[in-house]
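Why run this: before we spend reagent on co-expression, it is cheaper to look at a predicted model of the complex and decide which construct boundaries make sense. The entries below are exactly what would go into the expression plan.
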Amino acid sequence: GAVVSQHPSRVICKSGTSVKIECRSLDFQATTMFWYRQFPKQSLMLMATSNEGSKATYEQGVEKDKFLINHASLTLSTLTVTSAHPEDSSFYICSAGRDRRGILPETQYFGPGTRLLVL
Amino acid sequence: SQKIEQNSEALNIQEGKTATLTCNYTNYSPAYLQWYRQDPGRGPVFLLLIRENEKEKRKERLKVTFDTTLKQSLFHITASQPADSATYLCAHTTGGSYIPTFGRGTSLIVHP
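The model came back. Tokens follow.
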């Protein structure tokens, strides 16, 4: 158990367009999911915490109007990169912790990542 | 702010040897540390979690130690294999927050 999927795995888009990335927990429920960004040979940088049924919590420096997050259900969170520009090209990874009846999850289960290239 | 430091240089070892990776943290002790494996172009995969009151944790060929005095965790892979070649990430979580802070990772290359 504890499988997280992401779709698409790779996407190429033109500058100025919007791209939506889906993150699903396949065999468990996750009240909270996380979105990370990773540049080559760099660490995972937390962008935002996605909360089911409420607004996402963004990390300092992350534009909430540019990176729209929706946590529609206990198994699905989406990240939309609006008006994408070449500098948004990166590897986007989501993760989720298995809900444990009010206890904060410890281990994060990561999706396979989405490679975004903006031309 | 808390910093997680991992050796940025790749670790090259021969197959069959024990690989030892280091994770150092500054400031306050984490409630627990986690180790993840990340292959190129893939998301991290959870390996082991060790709490601040634990000295050592094992799982098959993997062993993690936690020294709060040295502010350091060591990650060992015994009888290493070429398939163990990957980047290994250390993640630190403090009490009261379940959001981990990740190090940059150390690349391990096991030569046949």
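Chain A is about 0% helix and 50% strand. The CA atoms of residues 38 and 115 of chain A lie 10 Å apart. Bring this page to Monday's planning discussion.
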